[in-house]
């Protein structure tokens, strides 16, 4: 076996542990040490396979599991508060209904955001970005995704203003699928680490477009299903980094290692044990 794989023993031991763990259901899964051998691990919406996504419970799990970053999705309420939730509406993940932009913080705080995942999490509240920073700043990195910024005029300035209240943003990455918003955020605070999320329709990316993106973005992030090793190399040649995500691809880690990406964004989803990537003996 190639030396490349020999260096991956920790990763594969972890994968084996996960494969065995997931037979038992979330309640019985023990915390695991994560060592991706150089790649960073980003807990997608918190450790969203273990606790209700984008809630304190899921973020705590991500911290407990040893992730390097917590990823959180951000919208804006009717009264201009930065709300952590994936969807534009509260319907799927809470006991309420309606669009976040039509609800006030007070109304959103009355919602229950845990029991859609499991009754054990009944009472879990919706969080704000302030609360996330308050709880986790300095303990773990944060990847803050601005969702649909065109729906929320001024959300970019609000996020930058909030982050400016912290002494350093070196462990914070701000990301979005909206490239123009990310460019503007870079202009507002050139020290902030920026990631642009690529849609399938953006690839293949021309060399000129990659030059443009890497001129303001530190990370170019892809779903694993539509990135290639060549594209990762092209980003690296421009001193950019690549994080990949997937909820569905069972070979996420295997591909991420092969493509030599800089990290994975995952909800610690149900990755089955895959015998073909077992580590070989020295
Ligand atoms: O961080 C990448 C990923 O979060 C983008 O997809 O829909 O889960 O926010 P989504
Ligand atoms: Ca996200």
Textual characterization of the structure:
- It is built from ten helices and ten strands.
- It has 282 residues and is of the alpha/beta class.
- It has a single domain (2-266), classed as Phosphatidylinositol (PI) phosphodiesterase (TIM Barrel, Alpha-Beta Barrel), CATH 3.20.20.
- The chain has an eight-stranded parallel barrel with strand order 1-2-5-6-7-8-9-10, surrounded by five helices.
- Helix 7 links the parallel strand 6 (172-176) and strand 7 (193-197).
- It is globular.
- The termini are close together.
- Mean pLDDT is 85; it is low at 1-34 and 270-282.
- Calcium ion (CA) binds next to strand 2.
Bound compounds, each kind once, are: SN-glycerol-3-phosphate, calcium ion
Q: Could you tell me the number of beta strands? A: 10
Q: Structural class of the secondary structure composition?
A: alpha/beta
Shape verdict? globular
* CA gyration radius, whole angstroms: 19 Å
Key features of this structure:
30% helix; TIM Barrel; alpha/beta; 282 residues; disordered C terminus; binds calcium ion; 16% strand; disordered N terminus; binds SN-glycerol-3-phosphate; eight-stranded parallel beta barrel
Could you provide a short overview of the structure?
The chain has helices at 3-6, 9-21, 56-64, 105-109, 129-136, 155-163, 179-188, 207-216, 229-237, 252-259, and strands spanning 40-43, 69-76, 82-84, 127-128, 141-146, 172-176, 193-197, 219-223, 243-245, 263-266. The chain is of the alpha/beta class and 282 residues long.
């Amino acid at each position: 076996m190639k030396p490349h794989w020999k260096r991956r023993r920790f990763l594969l031991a972890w994968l084996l542990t996960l494969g065995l763990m997931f037979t038992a259901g979330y309640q019985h899964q023990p915390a695991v040490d994560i060592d991706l051998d150089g790649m960073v691990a980003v807990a997608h919406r918190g450790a969203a396979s273990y606790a209700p996504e984008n809630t304190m419970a899921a973020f705590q799990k991500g911290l407990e599991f040893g992730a390097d970053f917590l990823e959180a999705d951000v919208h804006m309420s009717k009264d201009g508060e930065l709300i952590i939730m994936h969807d534009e509406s509260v319907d799927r993940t809470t006991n309420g209904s309606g669009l976040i932009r039509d609800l006030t913080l007070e109304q959103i705080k009355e919602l229950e955001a845990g029991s859609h995942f499991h009754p054990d999490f009944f009472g879990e509240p919706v969080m704000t970005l302030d609360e996330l920073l308050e709880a986790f700043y300095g303990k773990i990195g944060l990847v803050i995704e601005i969702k649909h910024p065109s729906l929320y005029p001024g959300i970019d300035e609000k996020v930058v203003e909030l982050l400016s209240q912290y002494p350093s943003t070196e462990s914070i990455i701000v990301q979005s699928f909206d490239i123009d918003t990310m460019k503007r955020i870079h202009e507002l605070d050139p020290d902030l680490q920026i990631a642009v999320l690529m849609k399938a329709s953006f690839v293949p990316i021309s060399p000129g477009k990659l030059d443009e993106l890497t001129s303001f973005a530190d990370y170019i992030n892809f779903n694993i299903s539509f990135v290639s090793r060549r594209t990762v190399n092209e980003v690296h040649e421009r001193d950019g980094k690549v994080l990949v995500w997937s909820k569905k691809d069972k070979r996420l880690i295997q591909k991420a290692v092969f493509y030599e990406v800089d990290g994975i964004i995952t909800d610690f989803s149900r990755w089955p044990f895959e015998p073909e990537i077992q580590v070989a003996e020295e």
